[in-house]
Amino acid sequence: MDKFLALTEEKRTTILNAALQCFGKFGYEKASINDIAVAAHISKASVFQYFGSKKHLYIYLLEYCKKIIEGIFDKEALDSQTDLFDRIMTSSKIEMESFKTQPFILQFISSVWEETSPDVLDSLAILTEETCKFRNDMILREDDALKFKNPEDAGPVFQMLLLMAEGYAARYRGADTFDFDTVMDDFQKNIAILRKNFYKEEYLK
Amino acid sequence: MDKFLALTEEKRTTILNAALQCFGKFGYEKASINDIAVAAHISKASVFQYFGSKKHLYIYLLEYCKKIIEGIFDKEALDSQTDLFDRIMTSSKIEMESFKTQPFILQFISSVWEETSPDVLDSLAILTEETCKFRNDMILREDDALKFKNPEDAGPVFQMLLLMAEGYAARYRGADTFDFDTVMDDFQKNIAILRKNFYKEEYLK
DNA sequence: GCACTAATAACCGAATCGGTCAAGAGGTTG
DNA sequence: CAACCTCTTGACCGATTCGGTTATTAGTGC
Questions:
Q1: Cβ-defined contact of B150 to A196 (cutoff 8 Å)
Q2: Contacts of strand D, CB cut-off 7 Å?
Q3: Which residue among B153, B167, B196 places its CB closest to the CB of A167?
Q4: Which of A122, A140, B20, B176 has a CA that sits 20 to 30 A from residue B153's CA?
Q5: Positions of chain B with pLDDT lower than 50, given as ranges
Q6: CA of A84 vs C1' of C21, distance in Å?
């Protein structure tokens, strides 16, 4: 593991991305070390040199993702946004920006939730716990609903936006190109349209 | 293949579902005949008895899904719906009802779009062509926009609904339980809320 | 030229791959 | 009962791939 840390950052991220992609795409058991080595353009032996075993590599990735998530979650930036739509937009932007440089984390994280291999089952909590925390803080607040023409619509609209975010993620999962800026632009426009039609006149700035 | 058709319908669907699930989950190369045999509670040899080879089985599934899609696509039922939201709701209902009895078709179809194995690459069109046709007919029509308070919102709202449908699919992909009725109920409520807030008063019957 | 290090080609036994086949198990005829 | 037929599968095939190891190489500083 210290052997791995001695590498240049570029080489490290190449290897981590390859591993995240393979595990994310195939799951723990079906992803082979050879798959990862080929994707990272290094030899299979090097992977074992760096991480010792397949299981150690997987656990390293879980902890790596946990740290990344902790890093991007800026509670203050979110709390300062008092408006529901602004808050969703801000958190999405934060998320997207970080995934722009870490393109395979998203599918890896979602694959962890479906992982069933007994080899790593008891290690999954490293990540699942953290992602839960992340989601729980992006929450609908009581006074958000008051801005709606029909306050009872606030909950469903919030759920719809979460659903749409999952739709975006699903649409581009596995795709080799992902134009983040276009997606965010699209999402921003959708949010603007929803706000315009659901908010009372007085809250349309 | 006639050996397979001689089986009882129950046994046939068990085997097909197992195969759809494995190929859908792992992709062509990573899914093994043994995986499928275990999931179907039959022996590996039987799979070869029924289908001859792994490739033949995969192609059989492609054609099987094609037929199912052709079957559920009821053009008349859609054309008779003049309202955008009604049309989306109707097509979603048709889709959901059929997937209720064919729970693994959805993830199999979406996996086909990501398939890259050269063994089956030239056979994928069997299904991809058909699913394209299916989607192209669920289209936004010119006069739909006229019912909107802001006609330019019609396109984005339509896209949002498609996105949400993908979100639902993604959320329950791989999950072993999927309460179709609850999901449809949820979707219906969302559609009603959107309609209420986006349509001109005069179109809210 | 020499020592040290980092990367990998070659290799290991074990497991699994797609695919085959002959030995049953079970049922139907005489 | 014997003879026959159909269907299922355990056991097996050679080939490949698995996770993991090791011995050799290529590069670097002195």
A1: yes
A2: A 31-35, 44-45, 48, 52-55; B 3, 6-7, 11, 42-46, 49
A3: B167
A4: A140
A5: none
A6: 67
Provide the mean pLDDT of chain A.
Answer: 88
- The answer to whether residue A103 neighbours chain B at the CB level (below 8 Å) is no
Backbone φ and ψ for B115, nearest 5 degrees, come out as -70, 135
| Start-to-end C-alpha separation, chain B | 54
> Which nucleotide's C1' is closest to A8 (Cα)?
C6
- pLDDT for B34-88, tens place per residue? 999 999 999 999 999 999 999 999 999 999 999 988 887 766 666 777 788 988 8
The pLDDT, as a whole number, for residue A59 is: 97
Mean per-residue pLDDT of chain B: 88
Residue by residue, DSSP assigns chain A as -HHHHTS-HHHHHHHHHHHHHHHHHHHHHH--HHHHHHHHTS-HHHHHHHHSSHHHHHHHHHHHHHHHHHHH--HHHHHT--SHHHHHHHHHHHHHHHHHHSTTHHHHHHHHTT---TTTGGGTHHHHHHHHHHHHTS---GGGGGGBSSGGGHHHHHHHHHHHHHHHHHHHTT-S---HHHHHHHHHHHHHHHHHHHB-GGG--
Contacts for A31 with CB less than 8 Å, ≥ 6 apart: A22, A23, A25
